[in-house]
Fold this protein.
Amino acid sequence: MNWDDLKIFLTLARCERLSEAGRQLKIDHSTVARRIKSLEQSLSTQLFERQPSGYFITSSGRELLEHAENIEANVIAAENAVVDKRMQLSGPVRVAAPEGIAAFAIAKAAQQLCDKNPSLKIQLVTNAQRYSLSKREADFLVTVSRPKAGRIKIQKIVDVPLHIYGTRDYLENKPPVNSLEDLKKLSYISYVPELLPEKELDYLSDLSVALDPQLTATSVHVQAAAILNNAGIGIMHDFMAAPHASLVKLLPDEISLTRTLWGVVHEDHQHVERTKVTSEAIVEGIRKLVLQGS
C-alpha cells in the first residue's frame, strides 16, 4: 500500500462514483476500479460495496478512511512546509459561497489576488451548501449557515444588514408606506419558499407582517433585478442596494434584518499557504464591502 493507492481510495470514498473519481484524479475509471480491487486484495478486506448507484464504503473502509485522512493531512502539511513563502502562490483553490457575496465581494478580491499571483487558480462556486469540505469539494466555504460539527475551523466574518427596498419610480404611483400594514398593498418579491438554498434565507418568517410574494425567484440577482426594474419591493442586502440611488429603504426602524457570514476551512487545509492567503483576502474583501454598504 502506498500514498497513490490511498489517494485513489480517498477520492472514491468521497465521491462514491468511479467516473467522478477518475475525472478528479485524471485517470481512467477502469484504473480506479483496478487499483481499488488491488488494494482490497492486499488488505484482505472489502473496502466498498459495489452497487448500481455507486461505490459505498464499508465498516472496514471507514477504519482505513480515518488513517488515510491523517496521512493526507501530513502530506499536505509536508508539501506546504517546503514551499518558499517568498514565491508566488500557485495551484487551485476552490471557494464556495452564496451567490450575492460571490458576485459583489469575492470575485473582486479573487481577481486582485490572481493579478499578484498569475499561477494561482481560484475556482468560485455558488450554492455553497452543496459543497463538502470533508469530501474536498471546496477548500474554503463562506456560508450563512454555521456548521455544527466536523474537523473544521470556523470564523465569523461579519454581520450583514438587510432591509426592504423599492425604487422611487415604483413607489411613486403606489399608496404611501407609513406602517407595516401598508406593505401588503405592494407587490412583494422573494425566494421560492420550497427551494430555499439555506434556511437562513427565509426572511418572511422574520418579518412582523405577513407578506404574500407575487414574484419569487431562486436567484438573489433575479430578485434584485426585478426590484430595480420596478416590479415590486423586496429584502435586499444593504451592500447590494448601496450603489443604486433609485432605491428607497422602507420602514427601516420597523424592519431591519441581520445575517451572519461564516468562513469555514477544513483542519487539514487551514495551513496550506494558497488556501490561507486566499481565504484571508476574501474575508477582508467581504468585510470591506459590507462596511462600505452599511
Notes: The chain has a mean pLDDT of 88. The longest strand covers residues 152-167.
